[in-house]
Write a structure and sequence with these properties.
Elements (H helix, E strand, L loop, with lengths): L3 E12 L38 H13 L3 E2 L2 E2 L1 E5 L9 E5 L5 E10 L2 E14 L3 E4 L6 E4 L6 E7 L6 H18 L11 E11 L9 E6 L2 H20 L7 E6 L4 E7 H4 L5 E2 L6 E2 L2 H9 L5 H12 L3 H8 L2 H11 L4 H19 L13 H12 L5 H14 L3 H8 L7 H14 L1 H8 L6 H11 L6 H11 L2
Parallel strand pairs: 12-13
Antiparallel strand pairs: 1-10, 1-11, 2-6, 3-16, 4-5, 4-15, 6-7, 7-10, 8-9, 11-12, 13-14
Helix pairs in contact: 2-3, 6-7, 8-9, 8-10, 13-15, 13-16, 15-16
The structure holds adenosine-5'-diphosphate (ADP), magnesium ion and zinc ion.
Adenosine-5'-diphosphate binds next to strand 1, strand 10 and strand 11.
Length: 478
């Protein structure tokens, strides 16, 4: 059994979050009644003329800038000819010889190793519609609402060597497009999906082996499992002395396997040619500079900054920067209270509440709690107004009712008892009720102090100031 190395290249389709389609003014809204967002252009009527969407060009360029690509200030739309019922024109408008972006790269970290992955090109294209094969009916339907939706396809170099690297690359890319705000990131709705090209070669070989292409993977988990499955399958084929057939395969997430869809050789000669209905896409130098200047801080540099700010390790900070909105929430709170403590509240109780209530962790707009409230909670624990335990107990309420913590705590009478006359009674009662322990303590078993503290805490429902309780006990047990 020879040792093989996997070679993986990804083609990622990112749906651009424009209001209208790539070449017409139809809405891109998801989930509308079938064939309601359709006009002559996106239905492919002969003679209907496409007009490029400026916003889509802008977004595509932002993706290129954020992935270290060279931006072609002049790029060309080309027709990619093939027949499919959900592609009424008989061709997709894409880019071929001269795409909008080329020669980029992304730095990823997989299994603790950092690595640079090349990006070959990024081109704009329109999406197809959807064929619906009705269950139990002898008919198929076509819904053209999605036809004409703007996509960018980001093609990587075959630089990845494992499923883990492929997933790390995808997550890095996903972070970038969602931070840029050019994609809504909804993977279930297909806004970010990928085809994985996988081949094997003997370890040490320089030439690539024959690849298969796994189509339309729409979750990180499916990418991981589909690639792992495909590597193992190809390994078996090669070990049997057979050769891998170049083909397109579909991943079945339920059965966890890939199955042949069509062989590549017979599949296509797309007969690309420049679309005669469309002028080259031109971007003015000054405009490109404006776009460059509007790039937000991206997840990787932001994670580095948060590590410095909080002193927390990379793995924890990565959770904070997973969504731009969550990172913004953290940062707003961290400006008003100790950043490390704020981070711990976000990573602990806050994410716990989100999960318990099935609220997305990346969408603070859907929480009642505001960053100011989180900061205030951290401050009143620091100041001793409430204990950390009470803060934890009331976190769920604050999360869902949006109250400011200090007012809430005062209203509910949850403030810490930091007044010695109020605590003395509780301390005296505990001492009076436990004479044997008091004797033992006086006889040298000083560890019993925590036993007394525990009883007093219970008697005061956790509201006693622990430092003060210790002080009173020490005095009274002398
Ligand atoms: P196509 O459009 O036919 O899929 P491309 O030339 O655009 O072909 O390549 C698609 C992807 O396949 C790229 O991401 C590239 O890195 C990857 N790729 C090319 N050759 C191999 C190979 N032998 N093994 C794995 N990936 C490959
Ligand atoms: Mg391909
Ligand atoms: Zn239209």
């Amino acid at each position: 059994m020879a040792a093989y190395e996997a070679v993986i290249g990804l083609e990622v389709h990112v749906q651009l979050a424009t209001a209208s389609k790539l070449f017409c003014s139809c809405s891109t809204r998801f989930g509308q009644p079938p064939n309601t967002n359709v006009c002559e252009v996106c239905a492919g009527m002969p003679g209907a003329l496409p007009v490029p969407n400026r916003q889509a060009v802008h977004y595509a360029a932002l993706v290129g800038l954020a992935t270290n690509c060279a931006i072609n200030r002049r790029s060309i739309f080309a027709r990619k000819n093939y027949f499919y019922p959900d592609l009424p024109a008989g061709y997709q408008i894409s880019q071929f010889d001269l795409p909008i972006c080329e020669h980029g790269h992304l730095d990823i970290v997989a299994e603790g190793q950092s690595k640079r992955i090349g990006i070959t090109r990024i081109h704009m294209e329109n999406d197809a519609g959807k064929n619906i094969h009705a269950q139990g009916e002898n008919a198929s339907y076509v819904d053209l609402n999605r036809a004409g939706t703007p996509l960018v396809e980001i093609v990587s170099e075959p630089d990845m060597r494992s499923a883990a690297e492929a997933v790390a690359y995808l997550k890095t890319l996903y972070g970038i497009v969602t931070y840029l705000g050019v994609c809504d990131g909804n993977m279930e709705e297909g806004s970010f999906r990928c085809d994985a090209n996988v081949s094997l070669r003997p370890v040490g070989a320089t030439a690539f082996g024959t690849r298969t292409e796994l189509k339309n993977l729409n979750s990180f988990r499916n990418v991981q499992r589909a690639i792992e499955y495909e590597i193992a399958r190809q390994q078996d084929v090669l070990d049997d002395g057979d050769s891998v057939v170049q083909e397109t395969r579909l991943y079945d997430a339920v059965k966890n396997l890939t199955a042949s869809m069509r062989s590549k050789e017979e599949a296509h000669d797309y007969r690309y040619f420049p679309d005669p209905d469309l002028l080259p896409v031109e971007i003015e130098a000054a405009e490109l500079e404006r776009w460059r200047a509007e790039l937000p801080e991206l997840p990787q540099p932001r994670a580095g900054r948060f590590m410095e700010l909080t002193g927390l390790p990379e793995a924890e900070v990565e959770v904070l920067v997973q969504s731009r909105a969550l990172a913004d929430f953290f940062e707003a709170a961290a400006q008003k209270a100790d950043p490390r403590k704020v981070a711990n509240y976000v990573l602990g109780p806050l994410l716990r509440e989100c999960n318990a209530r099935n609220v997305p962790t990346g969408d603070p707009a859907r929480w009642a709690m505001k960053p100011e409230a989180l900061a205030e909670l951290v401050r009143i624990v620091d100041q001793g107004l409430i204990s950390a335990k009470i803060a934890n107990d009331i976190f769920g309420d604050l999360f869902s009712n949006g109250a400011m913590p200090e007012a809430y705590v005062r209203e509910k009478g949850l403030g810490q008892i930091s007044d010695s006359s109020a605590l003395e009674a509780a301390v005296d009662a505990v001492i009076a009720a436990n004479p044997a322990e008091v004797e033992a303590y006086k006889g040298g078993k000083t560890k019993l102090i925590s036993f007394f503290v525990g009883l007093i805490m219970r008697a005061t429902k956790g509201k006693a100031n622990p430092a003060l309780v210790n002080e009173l006990l020490n005095k009274k047990l002398q």
